[in-house]
Structure to design on (153 residues):
């Protein structure tokens, strides 16, 4: 994992190799309050049938500068992420902070990485991301990711 502070590497229950911050502290310090504010704003706008174009592009800026929390289990040679598999599709769960992470009540230790790295989790089986599934959630579908981050492919 890459530490959001100064870009050092760190592992679960170890200190960052660069800034020496302990794992638990790095995770606890992660917050994306502006992103959460946008989720609420977008929800209100959509309820009132208003355009969310501006908020969508603001969200893209927030995302590309983010290091969100992600439940990933890594075993010997495989990596698995928590997804929501329902009739709407297969979405990877992401969280803005530890408080939101804990609301989902999973036993997996939180990991984090810059958003560019998290984008690499997208493969053909995944329809997108869902952030903060247990509260004011925001769905980030593949179409949005392609428009802002993944180019024309
Ligand atoms: Zn660090």
């Amino acid at each position: 994992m890459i530490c959001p502070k100064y870009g050092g590497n760190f592992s679960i229950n170890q200190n960052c190799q660069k800034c020496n911050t302990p794992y638990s502290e790095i995770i606890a310090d992660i917050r994306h309050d502006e992103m959460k504010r946008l989720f609420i704003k977008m929800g209100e706008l959509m309820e009132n049938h208003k355009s969310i174009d501006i908020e969508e592009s603001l969200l893209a800026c927030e995302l590309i500068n983010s290091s969100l929390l992600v439940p990933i289990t890594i075993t010997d040679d495989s990596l698995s992420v928590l997804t929501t598999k329902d009739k709407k599709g297969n979405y990877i769960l992401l969280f803005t902070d530890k408080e939101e992470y804990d609301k989902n009540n999973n036993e997996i230790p939180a990991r984090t990485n810059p958003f560019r790295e998290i984008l690499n989790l997208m493969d053909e089986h995944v329809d997108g991301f869902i952030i903060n599934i247990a509260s004011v959630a925001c769905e980030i579908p593949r179409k949005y990711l392609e428009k802002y981050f993944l180019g024309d492919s």
Notes: The pocket of zinc ion is lined by residues 3, 5-6, 8, 16, 18-19, 21 (CB under 6 Å).
